[in-house]
Design brief:
The structure holds 2 protein chains of 2 kinds. Chain A contains 13 helices and 16 strands. By secondary structure, chain A is an alpha/beta fold. In chain A, a hairpin with a 3-residue loop joins strand 13 and strand 14. The longest helix of chain A has about 50 residues. By secondary structure, chain B is an alpha/beta fold. In chain B, about 30% of the residues lie in helices and about 15% in strands. In chain B, strands 3-2-1-4-8-9-10 form a 7-stranded mixed sheet. Chain B has a 3-stranded antiparallel sheet with strand order 5-6-7. The chains are: A alpha/beta, B alpha/beta.
């Protein structure tokens, strides 16, 4: 009460004080100044502090990549004949080959992203580098038609009778090799995929895969205690493959044994003293909740290879087809997941026995795993040419033999085809990821885009240009420097994908993107209302005072007027 | 004074005009986008199924939301999706709640026949890890580099993803943890980001909350099928009340879905249309909604196993690769 009285007294005193012109003037100045200050300082401050930071992505450069612009991949064939081939003839072969390829290519379905293989024909011996192949032309009078044997290195030997000339047989052969692969590589064309026998089994490219080999012993109590010589077997059979493919991707291996694994989630049928799995059971076989295949690797795709030892009462276990016929194979592949092999122990095994699968026992299972791994990684069978000469209709090639790379599990031809396939895929992935990122950033205007993301996009673009440059370098004639350009192109494309994905999945790009207008009002009201009220009140006072002054002036004027008139 | 009033009027007119144009622009934008959606789908191109099961509610009285999610978890697991492909988010731990008179168990039925917690539950995000941010990060894949594998949605363009959410919600939002909320715009944007990076082939989005159908009203990405428990302005209701536990143990919409799933196994040929056909408004006490305009296939031809089963393609490996043999030629 006392405070109220005091305040009232204070205001009363102030009101009683005469208003000087100076004090009124200053009050007005203060009001106007505060409004100006609010506008001049406040608005830019508000604008800068609430602005979303968006780095300027090089969207024109990213959108320059169009699916119609074919990506050109060169293949270089060196021809080795008994009598030296003239440069003119090499040129002629190249022209004929290109004509054959173009004719064949016209019948292709148009893929999503276009790819075009270029052929360069040279004379002499090829350097030992991806993309360079030697074709040996040998006269052999014993055969009436041409037969080809494809080596596991980058070479093929063509045995022909004297009557067949190089200019006829070589374009046909080279174009078949090139078309065979180009057709398979062409993006998302289902027809081509079916033709190329590759299924959905293959996993997408990753710079590293973690491979787990698991020995599952269903029941060691009523069955045998099983162990395996996995280290020796891996060193002997799997290691060469891993080493050979290491320039493209890293396969990191680990193994485990699950004793007391328990039965699979399907119950095999039993007849004639043997049990068998039907095709309907196979998809569920690996889904047992008690089998732990967890990997410690957080992101690398996992590939699992199981060796399942059934309990003694259900041995021997086989796989049957739809009609119930037992198949000779005891292994199956699970798309994008891995492979399973079933190990049946010798008949003499008794419960409680200790069985160790030796390195030689493991050879068969490792053979299955290699076959499955090849499929999972995307190696096509029939590289560089299908085995039984589907092109025999042309008549001049009667037989094609392909040497399997039994030492490593992957031949040089297959390695190169895989390199090209991943190179093309990675380039596409990088481009589509960058284009998606640009589209997203444009459509979500509230999303923060940091400078790091722009940096990653720039790096990715640079790597894409590098990959293309590396491939054009191969065709330049003084090419000894560029023998390993294939590898460089591959690495650049893989890096481009990695950078693009880092940019796309940047953790900083998650924020609450949607901010409704009601929320904006709710946030700004408490800030601006208390500031706005005195300012608005001051404006109101200025206006009303001005009006009053005008009225007084007008009143004085009219009074004067009236006075003059009355005079 | 008049000038001030005029100014206020002017501001009001501007504001309403702005809101009106914004609304119209937005409506037009949605329509354009819908027309642009490519309906191309490679039906063979499907190799794996994933499930993201989210319970967003804390506290004992929300026992039923945990039970809903765990029941769904049991079902998708029984249908054949492996644990590595299920992301389970539970905002609270009812099994270990001191008010639980059946410790270490969670039941969804007063008869207590199946313990949902059991011995094989892998909860990937638990307790305070269940946040809007983590959920959006999970969907978009923008997780921190050190995130373990079980907290990542490692899907690709061959994956069908089932997303199930339950909790307390309202028009266009779903509450997380009593502290924050995810709104329908953010989920829609997250799905678009998934689509842009080819992180899914098809999505089945199912949500059991109040006014659930508003949650998928803002979606605009292709190949998304959405099912919600209740219309705008409607509540979703709980079902069984357990007198021993003292709270409701399941929600009606989820219960009738699970009831249908009881008749379904790994090799079933039931379709999504069959499931939707069993929805009975008088039993569920709300109007379940289905949004199919973004979905390219017919529901009568969409098998439940397309989303819930194990779809691995299997191929016989006819012969071992002759690795380590001296010489081989075919």
């Amino acid at each position: 009460m006392a405070l109220g009285d005091k305040l009232r007294a204070l205001f009363a005193r102030r009101r009683r004080q005469p208003r000087t012109v100076i004090s009124m003037h200053r009050e007005r100045q203060v009001a106007v100044f505060s409004i100006l200050l609010l506008l001049l300082v406040g608005l830019p401050l508000w604008w800068t502090t609430t602005r979303v930071y968006r780095a300027d992505l090089p969207s024109e450069k990213v959108n320059l990549f169009a699916p119609e612009n074919a990506f050109e991949v060169p293949l270089i064939f060196y021809i080795d004949t008994e009598s030296p081939l003239s440069a003119d003839k090499a040129q002629l072969i190249q022209t004929n080959t290109q004509a054959l390829i173009d004719a064949e290519r016209a019948s292709f379905a148009v893929g999503e992203w276009r790819v075009r293989y270029l052929v360069d024909v040279r004379v002499g011996a090829a350097p030992d580098a991806p993309g360079h192949y030697t074709l040996y032309l040998r006269a052999d009078d014993a055969t009436t038609t041409a037969s080809i044997s494809v080596g596991s290195d980058r070479s093929a030997t063509i045995s022909v009778t004297q009557s067949i000339v190089a200019e006829d047989i070589l374009p046909e052969l080279i174009s078949s090799i090139v078309i065979n692969e180009e057709q398979a590589v062409r993006g998302k064309d289902t027809k081509a995929r079916k033709k190329s026998q590759s299924s959905h089994a293959a996993v997408n490219y990753a710079p590293e895969y973690s491979i787990t080999l698991t020995l599952l012993n269903e029941d060691p109590v009523n069955g045998a205690v099983v162990d395996w010589e996995i280290e020796q077997a891996v060193d002997a059979y799997l290691k060469p493959f891993v080493d050979k493919i290491s320039p493209l991707t890293k396969l990191s291996l680990s193994s485990q044994i699950l004793h007391h694994a328990g039965s699979p989630p399907v119950v095999p049928l039993r007849a004639n003293n043997q049990s068998y799995l039907t095709p309907e059971m196979l998809p569920h076989f690996v889904n047992s909740p008690s089998w732990n295949f967890a990997s410690i690797d957080p992101i690398s795709p996992m590939l699992n290879f199981l060796l399942f030892v059934p309990e003694l009462t259900s041995q021997p276990m086989h796989i049957a087809d739809e009609k119930g016929d037992i198949q000779s194979s005891e292994a199956f592949l699970v798309s994008q997941w891995g492979g399973v092999a079933i190990a049946n122990l010798p008949d003499t095994t008794r419960p409680g026995d200790r069985v160790k699968l030796s390195k030689t026992d493991m050879q068969k299972y490792m053979g299955y795993y290699i076959a499955q791994l090849r499929q999972l990684i995307g190696i096509r069978s029939g590289t560089p040419l299908p085995q039984h000469g589907s092109r025999a209709r042309k008549g001049s090639i009667s037989r094609i033999d392909t040497r399997l790379a039994t030492e490593t599990g992957i031949s040089d031809w297959e390695f190169d085809a895989l390199l090209r396939q991943w190179l093309i895929r990675n380039r596409q992935t990088a481009i589509t990821t960058l284009q998606s990122l640009v589209r997203l950033v444009n459509s979500l205007q509230n999303m923060v885009v940091m400078d790091e993301i722009k940096a990653q996009v720039d790096k990715s673009l640079e790597a894409l240009y590098k990959a293309e440059q590396a491939l054009t370098d191969i065709l330049s004639l003084d090419s000894s420097r560029f023998h390993h350009s294939y590898q460089h192109a591959f690495e650049s494309a893989a890096a481009a994908t990695a950078f693009a994905e880092t940019a796309f999945f940047d953790p900083s790009m998650v924020s609450m993107l949607y901010f409704p207008d009601q929320h904006k009002y709710a946030i700004y009201m408490p800030f601006f209302l208390p500031v706005a009220i005195p300012v608005l009140a001051a404006i109101k006072r200025i206006i009303s005072e001005r009006r009053r002054n005008k009225a007084i002036a007008a009143g004085v004027d009219s009074a004067d007027h009236a006075a003059k008139k009355s005079n | 004074m008049n000038l001030l009033r005029a100014l206020l009027h002017l501001a009001g007119v501007f504001l309403s005009a702005y809101i009106l144009t914004a609304e119209i622009a937005q409506a037009a934008g949605v329509r354009n986008k819908k027309q642009k959606i490519a309906r191309f789908l490679d039906t063979e191109n499907h190799t794996n199924n994933w499930a993201v099961l989210v319970c967003t509610s804390r506290f004992w009285f929300n026992y039923r939301h945990i039970a809903n999610t765990l029941s769904m978890y049991r079902t998708v697991k029984r249908m054949g999706i492996p644990d590595s492909h299920i992301i389970l988010m539970l905002a609270d731990d009812m099994a270990c709640n001191p008010r639980n008179c059946y410790p270490a168990t969670v039941y969804d039925h007063p008869k207590k026949t199946t313990d949902l917690y059991g011995d094989n539950v892998e909860v990937d995000y638990r307790g305070y890890e269940v946040t809007v941010e983590n959920f959006i990060r999970l969907l978009t894949g923008r997780v921190e580099a050190h995130t373990p594998r079980n907290k990542r949605l490692l899907t690709d363009d061959k994956s069908n993803v089932f997303i199930y959410m339950t909790g307390h919600g309202g028009e266009d939002f779903l509450k997380f943890q009593d502290a924050e909320e995810v709104n329908s715009y953010d989920i829609a944007d997250a799905m678009q980001q998934m689509w842009e990076k080819k992180r899914y082939r098809e999505i089945l989005f199912m949500i059991d909350t109040c006014q659930a159908n508003t949650m998928f009203s803002k979606f605009y990405s292709p190949n998304v099928l959405s099912i919600g428990s209740s219309d705008k302005g409607e509540n979703s209701y709980s079902y069984f009340h357990d007198r021993d536990i003292g709270v409701s143990v399941i929600d009606r919409f989820t219960y009738y879905n699970l009831d249908f799933f009881e008749s379904v196994d790994m090799s079933s040929k039931h379709t999504i249309a069959d499931m939707i056909g069993t929805y009975n408004t008088s039993l569920i006490h709300s109007h379940p909604g289905v949004r199919t305009d973004l979905y390219a296939r017919e529901l009568q031809k969409t098998y439940l196993t397309d989303f819930f089963g194990a779809v691995q393609e299997v191929e016989l490996t006819t012969k071992p690769f002759p690795i380590g043999n001296k010489q081989a030629s075919t």
